[in-house]
UniProtKB/TrEMBL annotation:
Gene name linked to the record: ALDH22A1_0
Family as reported in the entry's similarity comment: Belongs to the aldehyde dehydrogenase family.
UniProt entry tagged with the keyword Oxidoreductase: yes
Active site residues according to the UniProt entry: E294
Keywords: Oxidoreductase
Domain Aldehyde dehydrogenase intervals: 59-489
Entry-linked PANTHER family: ALDEHYDE DEHYDROGENASE-RELATED
Organism: Nicotiana attenuata
Taxonomic lineage: Eukaryota, Viridiplantae, Streptophyta, Embryophyta, Tracheophyta
SUPFAM superfamilies tied to this protein: ALDH-like (SSF53720)
This protein's name: Aldehyde dehydrogenase 22a1
Amino acid sequence: MAFWWALIVIVFAFAICKLLLMLIPSNVPSIDVDTSDVLDDGNHTKENSFIYIPSRRHTDKVQCYEPATMKYLGFLPALKPDEVKERVAHARKAQKIWAKSSFKQRRLFLRILLKYIIEHQDLICNISSRDTGKTMVDASLGEIMTTCEKIHWLLSEGEKWLKPEYRSCGRSMLHKTAKVEFYPLGVVGAIVSWNYPFHNIFNPMLAAVFSGNSIVIKVSEHASWSGCFYLRIIQTALAAVGAPENLVEVITGFAETGEALVSSVDKMIFVGSPGVGKKIMRTAADTLIPVTLELGGKDAFIVCEDVDVPHVAQVAARAALQSSGQNCAGAERFYVHKDIYSSFVAEVVKIVKSVTAGPPLSGKYDMGAICMQEHSEKLQYLVNDALDKGAEIVARGSVGNIGEGAVDQYFPPTVIVNVNHTMKLMQEEAFGPILPIMKFSSDEEVVQLANDSKYGLGCAVFSGSQRGAKQIASQLHCGVAAINDFASSYMCQVLEV
């Protein structure tokens, strides 16, 4: 599974990037970004060669380390509220200048970034992998391809969406005209998660800067090291087009850093847990700023009786591995029709038994490490609760050659059957490589099961009948539905508008 999946993704990504590179005008300048302090050449000094032992206590520093090896990467400051407000003030001054920039200047900024990303994708993926534990293939798919597609969409469509629009005045006001004009908001704040450290910074930044705003981004304490390097790329590209300094800022810290950001900006974007999302909404209510939230997921993966079982089992296994603690929430609940349940489970078991987790940069593992400290304990707690209530583990993947200090950062992919909705595993977000598979008998039953959740991020429905799959999906209470596919909507930027 690892070889063919990696080969397909790499070939596809290479082809897409080659095509995009051909679309960049030849006169777009290249930028030179200092990488001397982020390249792993194996010659570590005494200060940054030791194995890091995570502390459960927050300090005035954000400690950075490689989850896959527990190798220490250094530390970054945990900014205090007054320091955050100072950064926002600088960004506000820069935004007043940038608001007068032309779309031509903004497009040049995007093209410079696109050129750098395509030419340095190995570097970007390597840094993402070191900071989060994800494999290079997952980084290529989730970091590079999605970001390039975002840039390409903004280049071709962004100005159109920001142009003034004339609207109908209605019958009683036929002699009048009405027009909607779009103006920059000011300073956008973003608190982003660790699962895609490159894309999660670039996604809000690209839209904010292209629309004339500045942005201050608080990166996760679990992925701060890479975030500060990615800022270096952005700032170098901005300088190349004559943009003001401090237009884009990346800040590091813990909860008080994020709270100070929310209370200082003109719009807030947050990607993370529902609990933190509620706190952000409460803080934003004090200043009545608009808030965009992308919270947790417990996506249902529904398999009807008329599918190609081996093919869909492959997709299901990959969807679960997407939830390996480094990537997106992925699929977390699998509902399979009773007529194909046994054959589907057998196929998934065969696939998962061949999966091995290990240090991602060695290049021979399907899965990397889990990014967050102590997350393996949570995953094991959810599995134990299910086992206590009658579930059964029918397959587990293996863990490769890892150092003693990094053992707790790995969780083997696990297939569990005989699950039901009394189990926490089917109700709480796991964010781990676990496949709990439950059978259903009818469309009505599976709709009821899929909607029995406090989450509503997305779903996937597989059926030999497009019409039947769409009928099921139309009844599910979620934001994004994929038909005979999984997570493809992330590449469709028009759905993000």
